[in-house]
Write a structure and sequence with these properties.
The structure holds 2 protein chains of 2 kinds. By secondary structure, chain A is α+β, with helices and mostly antiparallel strands. Chain A contains 8 helices and 5 strands. In chain A, helix 1 packs across helix 7, helix 4 crosses helix 5 and helix 4 packs across helix 6. Chain A starts with a helix and ends with a strand. In chain A, 17% of the residues are buried. By secondary structure, chain B is α+β, with helices and mostly antiparallel strands. Chain B is built from 4 helices and 7 strands. Classes of the chains: A alpha+beta, B alpha+beta. At the A-B interface, helix 1 and helix 2 of A face helix 2 and strand 3 of B.
């Protein structure tokens, strides 16, 4: 039996279901905070405490599984300290179970707003750098994900570029892993 | 299971009793859910460190320091009680030998450390079986 189906069996017990929701807060949140600290070089409990306007022992307590029960206001202040969002919403048990099973405390990372690729400034001259020296074609940005299998990959000035058939689709993926974009060449 | 960065195996008594499963079954529902969540997290972590893991316990009364060498404990709280799972590393696997609670430097049951040392020795001498943690 794999872990998700094993968890599904446990969740058939209403009492365990109630306890499971609490455990995702009591145990899960400390591991999230630990992971976010680990993934931000130079950050310490003191630094988070200052930003969240809390004392360092409070942060230490919040990182200790089961020691404290953080309320939403505390989580909001932590999100503010990490300059990231906080999602609090009701969800089906299957979704919570999947999140619980897929959460990886070693790789979990939430970027701050400035590093959030979803809000990266995408100026036309930056996007069109591969056309330096030639006239930049007019592009319509569609936020598409490149489909490498359908395109010819090539390296160009450090970027992975997928060159399409003429007059079709152009896609560029940053070498810094900041995500991709695609446009239709008119 | 390959997804785990740290594998955990559980002590089986000479009489064939799964002592870790019995410990888990004896917990309240909330304590069980918290233990499940905590141990799952720790299996996903490669490098066990404080405060989640204390790698070396102090010698127990009547036992030599050498006997508890390598005996550590997973630490978490649940239902206002500090919980411990005692065990040791060997051959890249962490062997869980005993679950207990801890308050003001006192383990419950009181003979927890002595029992953990005994079970550790039984595993290391190959006198007992262990099973993959699958609770």
């Amino acid at each position: 039996m794999n872990t998700i189906s094993k968890l599904g069996e446990k969740l058939r017990d209403p009492e365990y279901r109630k306890a499971f929701v609490a455990s995702q807060i009591n145990i899960g949140i400390p591991f999230q905070i630990r992971a976010m600290l680990r993934n931000r070089p130079g950050w310490t409990q003191d630094a988070v405490a200052r930003r969240a306007q809390m004392l360092q022992p409070r942060i230490s307590g919040l990182m200790t599984p089961g020691k404290t029960r953080p309320n939403i206001e505390t989580l909001r202040r932590l999100a503010e300290a990490f300059d990231c969002g906080l999602i609090v919403r009701f969800a089906p048990f299957s979704e919570l179970a999947r999140w619980s099973e897929e959460f990886d405390p070693e790789s979990f990372s939430v970027p701050s707003f400035d590093e959030d690729s979803g809000f990266m400034d995408r100026k036309p001259q930056q996007r069109a750098s591969i056309f330096r020296g030639t006239e930049q074609p007019e592009l319509v940005d569609h936020q598409l994900t490149p489909v490498p299998a359908l395109l010819e990959p090539a390296q160009c000035k450090g970027n992975l570029v997928f060159m399409p058939p003429p007059g079709q689709v152009l896609a560029v993926q940053s070498s810094q892993g900041l995500g991709g974009w695609a446009g239709v060449q008119r | 299971m390959s997804e785990w960065r740290t594998r955990i195996r559980c002590y089986i008594s000479p009489a064939g009793k799964p002592k870790i499963a019995e410990w888990r079954d004896g917990l309240s529902v909330q304590e069980r859910a918290d233990a499940d969540a905590f141990i799952r997290m720790m299996r996903m972590v490669a490098d066990w460190r404080p405060p989640y893991y204390r790698p070396q316990l102090r010698p127990v009364k009547g036992a030599k320091a050498s006997q508890v060498r390598g005996l550590g404990e997973l630490r978490w709280s649940s239902a206002k009680t500090q919980h411990r799972l005692l065990g040791f590393f060997g051959d890249g696997v962490w062997y869980a030998v005993l679950g207990c609670t801890h308050k003001q430097n006192i383990y419950n049951p009181a003979d927890a450390l002595a029992t953990a040392v005994k079970r550790k020795n039984e595993i290391q001498r190959g006198e007992v079986k262990t099973v993959e943690y699958d609770l």
